[in-house]
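User: Hi! I'm working on a homework problem where we have to compare a predicted structure to a textbook description. Could you give me the structure for the chain below?
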Amino acid sequence: MKLFSRLSVGTKVAFVVASLVVICICVLAVCIILTSKNTLENESYRILHQASYRYGTLLEGVSSEILDTLLINATAIDSQVARNMLNMEDFKDIITAIPNNIESIKYAYLFIPQLSDKGEIIILAEQDGKRGQKANLIKAETSIKEFTSIQNAIAHDKPSISAPTTITFQNKEYFAQGFAVPIHNKNGKAIGALGCFVNFATLGAPLLSDEARIFTNDQRFVIDENGTILVNQNPQFIGKKLIDIVPTQEAKNIVASAKEGKSGIFPYRTAAGIEGVIGMRSVAPLKGDSTYWNVLSYIPNKSITESLIKLLWVIIMCSAATIFIIVIGAILYLRTSVAKRIRLILQTLLAFFSYLNHERKDAPQPLKIVAQDELGEMGNAINDNIQKTKLGLEQDSKAVEQSVLTAKTIESGDFRARITETPHNPQLNELKNVLNHMLDDLQTKIGSDTNEIARVFDSYTRLDFTTEVNNASGRVEVVTNTLGEEIRKMLHTSSNFAQNLSEEAKALAEAV
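Assistant: Happy to help. Predicted structure tokens:
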């Protein structure tokens, strides 16, 4: 505190301004960072929500399209069976038209265990990638009839979906999930099933593409209601349980929500221990069934905070630059405009005090007024008072000089001298009046010229009483003249008396 009190005004003001600027900008930066953090988190969650919903809607659309296609074609087959118009070529045309019209369907099939004299019917078609054209018929796989989707469709007489699994057709393995709808006879009894297998590699391609990436190091995958991974960018995870790969409580909570078909934002930790958040959208590929496809979009916390860190550095750099500019600008302004003017005022005041204390003979030069602010008003007041004091001191000096001359005149014996100059100092003016009054009193009691009185007294000492004080007005002068007059009268009387004695002596001598 003592060090601060010794600093100049400009330095103190600059320090205070810099401190306030630093505090305000730091508070502002903290508020911006906190607000930005919340905004970025909310925006990230919103993007996660939108991304998972977007691809969830895509999967929902695909499942609806598959079921609609199967139901429409099943109705056509039901119609032929009811009319007993069993044309195998028509059945084949129906089956081969399904895969190439829906990209995610790898295989379509028709299975009827017993149809009148036709016996068991198994027709299998494989997608050849040519949209709008018929697929290729391939050798029927007897393993088809073992799928739960077919068995449930026939047994429960309603659309069914199997658990995702790896299927092998023509020595090729595919991770797929089966859809099936029942085929009815003319009595409405389920006698077979029309179905297909969804290839998750094709279904998940849009989800795994680079265009789907929303953040750095994000992940997108699909699990079913049991936590089985259906789509993932790492092929070795396909078909495995999420909680087996990531045995954490966060993963268990996600699987529990997936089983209930609950969408939302969940905390998550990867198998590598990287923490983040997951946005999950659950869709039911088969309405009224407990099967769910759950689209998960994962963002590492680092990716969320990456933008925040960049913003933080921008704020820090901008804040530092702002503080530097404001502080340097304030210091330069204070030095050139305020501190410099204060120093000039201080120097002028010190010179003025030296002038008042008679340490210098000349008054300081007036301050140059450069602005009509408080310092400018102070400078004007100082200039006015310097000018008034200068004139007052000059006036006092003249009065003192005249007083000295008057004293010398009085010293020479002339009491008629007076101080006529009026000093600026009231005390000097009072002294002037006292001296003039004293001189008036001396002139009244003594006289106008002591030299004249001394001349008369000198004559008296030589017994010359014939002279007198000319123009006597003072009491001493009048008394001196009166004394001389009386002495002259006395001498004249004595002279007459002596003359009479002389004459009487002569007369006596003559008489004798």
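For your comparison, note the following. DSSP finds 13 helices and twelve strands in the chain. The two ends are 126 Å apart (CA to CA). Good luck with the assignment!
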